């Protein structure tokens, strides 16, 4: 044994290799060495040593040579001077410097109690001895661990600081009152869908399970009941339809697992208001309906005007008695002056009632809304000397579709058939039009119908529209704006994760498949109201009547929200009359230069506040709705049964039924109606989970603990998230399911007024915000924030062309 370190620990001696001062791990002396070591100590005059004593030994196996043991004194902190190099004072023999390590390590080495060091003179030179257990190598490893811990602490500290800063910024926006949070956002779509052959229903798979669980849903906000006509409940146990719960469960399942877009109209194209230069005087013509289908009442033929003039309404009212209305006949005896690309007439002498000796003309009156308020009102009139034109089914369908998004049909899902009424006759659907308070006449309401004698514009492309500048379809349908792989499953032999569990059905058959359907593996029973205390005893509940503010239909035509954000240069406003509003669905690229995709699956933020978005309108109570609601705290309990699910399928089902199992944080879901108003927030929980395999069912084998199997299944699907490219999907969904993700009192449909004016008519006019934030003539396009972004605030201020607000 040569040059070893020794340490007395209590009454026991330990030894470590010297390693030229680098030391090593201390271990007990071998039994043989322990017998003679006390003798060596005595020979070296080292007796009565205290515990914690370090010795350096130069012990020889040759009995003719003397053994040598010397005591090592650990250096006091005064002997270690920090700096770029740690200097060690070796007394009169000189000084040593520790180099070759990161400065942070050296700084630590110089601190009190860091590492016991000593200076030994070996072979005529000073050597720095590392006396810690494991020696210098152990110290280096500890430094690495310490660095990692320090970096982690620093990262956590920076993250906490950033989070606090963000919370402060968000609170400032909330307190400012000039920012709002849109009620909904979108979970992005995955790039592709994984499809497999479903498990079938013939026999249980070897690793598949069947079973059931109770799904408890605790309402955190009031729950609006379905079928408001008969939804009043007075001290009754509620029966809540399982079909409604199944829909909510499947929606979450499709999103989480990366399933197909089961409910989507791939052919959908939104309708937009046309730009100011949409009217083409050289090609657009007025027309009169001359024929409609006797069964469907679709327009099939029109009579075209071969000339169009624009007449000041004052000239018309001066010469025509009985009022103006669309479809009224007259005579025009002059050609107007060319103004802004159209022929305008202001001279009343050019106007007279219709006569048999003069060509017949017809007038067309439209809403004043699209015209500039400081300009006089001109009525379009057309000379009916042109040919007839046949209107095909697709042209008529496009016209009806364009009407459905107009102001005349707001809140009207199925407008009544008005095709049998004649202009200005009884029952004719019309609205008065005025200019600066002066009545002009009556216009035909754009309700999706036209009767014989009604007037309509026919564009150079053959399209029908109710105004020279009206509404037109966007470009590139939903199907073109999403990966084909995301469209609904159609092959029962190859289904997405959701269709393979919840079932899939398509109306059409194909040559390959006799029927395009697959039966479900999931059954959701009716829910009952139960006691919040034990979650199982039926409990009687009472609903209350609620007055609701208006709920409008979704507006996917708002491309700033429903489509991916375009590139920065494609967001700017422009006053050029050829400018197309940036929010419109047209061939506008995203950041990657590709066609803008649909944003994803729509989800609503959770949260209600006193006097918040659920407060009915006081300025226009006729727009309010009504419903019945159960109180917050109501608990619903439904039995969900399933059969023949693989471990992966079980994992996705449990994650959808109780998202907390997947995300590890509190999550809530939406039930019932009124989601835009914050109603129906419920916290889901799985109870009484029962699982069994085929062998357990038929061979009475012992069942594995259901919760352990459930945990394994959820862990399995959690491991698939990155592989299936669902990371961004889950980040957004987790944020949207959080009950406290955003400030509830600032959730509101877009407004151009501060929250101090909440409840006023101006505050509730959402269209005004879109009018100045959609990249039109004023105000750049403001896209909806990504759902995973902590900052969901949108400013009411308008950003001008210089980027100022």
Automatic annotation (TrEMBL):
<feature type="region of interest" description="Disordered">
    <location>
        <begin position="606"/>
        <end position="626"/>
    </location>
</feature>
<feature type="coiled-coil region">
    <location>
        <begin position="145"/>
        <end position="173"/>
    </location>
</feature>
<keyword id="KW-0175">Coiled coil</keyword>
<protein>
    <submittedName>
        <fullName>CRISPR-associated protein</fullName>
    </submittedName>
</protein>
<feature type="region of interest" description="Disordered">
    <location>
        <begin position="529"/>
        <end position="558"/>
    </location>
</feature>
<feature type="compositionally biased region" description="Polar residues">
    <location>
        <begin position="530"/>
        <end position="546"/>
    </location>
</feature>
<feature type="compositionally biased region" description="Polar residues">
    <location>
        <begin position="611"/>
        <end position="626"/>
    </location>
</feature>
């Amino acid at each position: 044994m040569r040059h070893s370190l020794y340490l007395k620990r209590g009454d026991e001696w330990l030894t470590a290799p010297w390693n030229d001062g680098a030391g090593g791990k201390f271990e007990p002396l071998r039994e043989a060495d322990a017998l003679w070591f006390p003798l060596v100590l005595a020979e070296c005059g080292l007796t009565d040593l205290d515990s914690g004593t370090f010795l350096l030994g130069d012990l020889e196996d040759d009995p003719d040579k003397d053994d040598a043991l010397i005591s090592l004194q650990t250096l006091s902190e005064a002997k270690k001077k920090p700096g770029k190099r740690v200097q060690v004072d070796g007394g009169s023999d000189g000084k040593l410097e520790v180099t070759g390590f990161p400065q942070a390590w050296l700084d630590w080495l110089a601190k009190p109690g860091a590492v016991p060091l000593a200076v030994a003179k070996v072979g005529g030179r000073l050597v720095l001895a590392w006396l810690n257990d494991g020696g210098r190598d152990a110290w280096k490893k500890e430094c690495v661990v310490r660095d990692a811990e320090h970096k982690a602490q620093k990262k956590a500290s920076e993250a906490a600081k950033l989070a606090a800063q963000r919370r402060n910024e968000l609170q400032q926006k909330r307190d400012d009152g000039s920012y709002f949070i849109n009620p909904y956002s979108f979970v992005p779509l995955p790039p592709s869908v994984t499809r497999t052959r479903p498990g079938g229903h013939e026999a249980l798979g070897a690793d598949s399970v069947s079973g059931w669980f109770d799904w408890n849903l605790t309402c955190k906000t009031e729950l609006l009941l379905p079928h408001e006509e008969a939804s009043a409940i007075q001290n009754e146990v509620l029966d809540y339809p399982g079909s409604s719960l199944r829909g909510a469960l499947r929606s979450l399942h499709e999103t989480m697992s990366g399933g197909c877009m089961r409910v989507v109209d791939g052919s959908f194209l939104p309708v937009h208001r046309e730009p100011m230069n949409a009217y083409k005087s050289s090609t657009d013509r007025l027309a009169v309906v001359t024929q409609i289908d006797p069964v469907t009442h679709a327009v099939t033929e029109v009579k075209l005007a071969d000339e169009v003039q624009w007449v000041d309404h004052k000239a018309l009212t001066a010469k025509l008695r009985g009022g103006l209305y669309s479809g009224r006949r007259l005579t025009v005896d002059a050609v107007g002056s060319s103004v802004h690309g159209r022929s305008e007439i202001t001279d009343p002498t050019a106007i007279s009632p219709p006569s048999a000796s003069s060509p017949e003309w017809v007038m067309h009156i439209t809403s004043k809304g699209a015209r500039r308020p400081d300009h006089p009102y001109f009525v379009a009139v057309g000379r009916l000397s042109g040919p007839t034109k046949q209107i095909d089914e697709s042209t008529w369908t496009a016209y009806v579709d364009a009407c459905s998004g107009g102001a005349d049909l707001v809140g009207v899902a199925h407008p009544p058939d008005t095709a049998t009424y004649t202009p200005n006759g009884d029952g004719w659907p019309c609205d008065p039009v005025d200019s600066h308070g002066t009545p002009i006449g009556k216009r035909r309401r754009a309700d999706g119908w036209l009767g014989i004698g009604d007037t309509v514009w026919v564009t150079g492309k053959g399209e029908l529209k109710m105004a020279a500048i009206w509404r037109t379809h966007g470009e590139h349908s939903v199907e073109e704006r999403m990966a084909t792989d995301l469209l609904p499953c159609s092959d029962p032999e190859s289904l997405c994760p959701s269709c393979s569990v919840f079932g899939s059905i398509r109306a059409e058959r194909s040559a390959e498949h006799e029927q395009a359907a697959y039966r479900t593996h999931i059954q959701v029973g009716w829910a009952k109201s139960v006691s919040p205390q034990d979650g199982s005893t039926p409990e009687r509940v009472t609903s209350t009547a609620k007055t609701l503010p208006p709920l409008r239909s979704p507006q996917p035509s708002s491309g700033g929200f429903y489509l991916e954000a375009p590139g920065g240069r494609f967001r700017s406003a422009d006053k050029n009359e050829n400018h197309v509003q940036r929010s419109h669905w047209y061939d506008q690229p995203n950041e990657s230069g590709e066609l803008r995709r649909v944003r994803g699956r729509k989800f609503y933020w959770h949260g209600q506040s006193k006097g918040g978005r659920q407060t009915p309108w006081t300025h226009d109570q006729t727009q309010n709705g009504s419903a019945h609601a159960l109180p917050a705290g109501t608990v619903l309990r439904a039995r969900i049964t399933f059969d023949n699910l693989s471990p992966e399928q079980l994992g996705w089902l449990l994650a959808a039924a109780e998202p907390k199992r997947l995300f590890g944080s509190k999550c809530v879901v939406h039930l019932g109606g009124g989601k835009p108003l914050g109603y129906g927030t419920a916290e889901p929980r799985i109870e009484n989970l029962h699982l069994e395999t085929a062998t357990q069912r038929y061979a009475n084998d012992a069942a594995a603990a259901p919760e352990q199997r459930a945990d394994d299944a959820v862990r399995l699907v959690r491991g698939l998230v990155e592989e299936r490219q669902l990371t961004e999907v889950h980040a957004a969904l987790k944020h949207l399911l959080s009950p406290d993700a955003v400030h509830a009192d600032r959730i509101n449909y877009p407004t151009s007024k501060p929250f101090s004016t909440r409840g006023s008519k101006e505050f509730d006019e959402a269209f005004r915000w879109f009018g100045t934030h959609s990249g039109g003539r004023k105000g750049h396009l403001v896209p909806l924030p990504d759902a995973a972004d902590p900052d969901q605030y949108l400013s009411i201020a308008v950003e001008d062309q210089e980027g100022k607000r």
